[in-house]
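Input record (one chain):
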Amino acid sequence: MKIGPISDEAFDLPEEIIEKYKIGVARFKIDLQELKNLPGNIYQKTREAERQGIESVVKTSQPSINDFLSIFKEKLNEFEEVFCVTISSKLSGTYNSALQAKKFLQKEFQDKVHVIDSLNGSAGQGLVVLKIIELAKRNLNSQEINNKIKEVIEKTKLLGMYHDPKWLKASGRFPRFVPVIMERAEKMSIKPVFRMVNGKLSVAGVKRNIIDLSSALFEEFDKATKKARGEGKKIIVGITHADDISQATKLKEMILSLKNTEVAFINLTCFPIGGHIGPNSLILSWQE
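The corresponding structure, as predicted from the sequence alone:
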């Protein structure tokens, strides 16, 4: 490919895909504080901290301008042009960091860097990156990809659910009334289903007395894609989870039981996203 992909860590693609397509990744900064020496991945550390009564909030910060600048320079040595896809600008300042980094390149290289606001995150952002790779492999040039990418972003959908609302409060990123409302809803066996709309997180609806998160998300997916599948359109899916591979795998199997579906990847949700909704949360994204 003449065009190289770049993204921030929030795109949640598996390492094997990152390596296969030589994707440049701008990592978030994570300060584990008192959780640093606890065992396991970040979600396992979080659970263990709760079990031990350790009150510590893991701090995250977006990739810096220098982080993006270094990756731009590195990938421009490998590719003629690069596309950098970021988490929604309405959720993070990462998009702005990438735009600012582009300005520090020499003039002749600036036009070779295309910074794209995914208006999404996690699996949704990952699917946008994969679509750009697909278009580049079809030998579309950068102008043609830019012309198509807006429609790609509009057709990229995301749903998510948390396992326990207490983590919303612990993250410190939500207004105080939000976790209180969610905890009250939990006592009534009600869980909200979140979705991305124009780059912002909103409530798509609520589910009562659910069996598990995978079944609840599958039900929403089935309804949302029924018409497209019936018309023979292929639905490409990405799934991420906050350390609950059994639920992610179950969701994958249910989706693949439907015609015209393909699961592109399953992966762990990065902590800058999953840390706000907590362990065992589940995210489902798709494109027609």
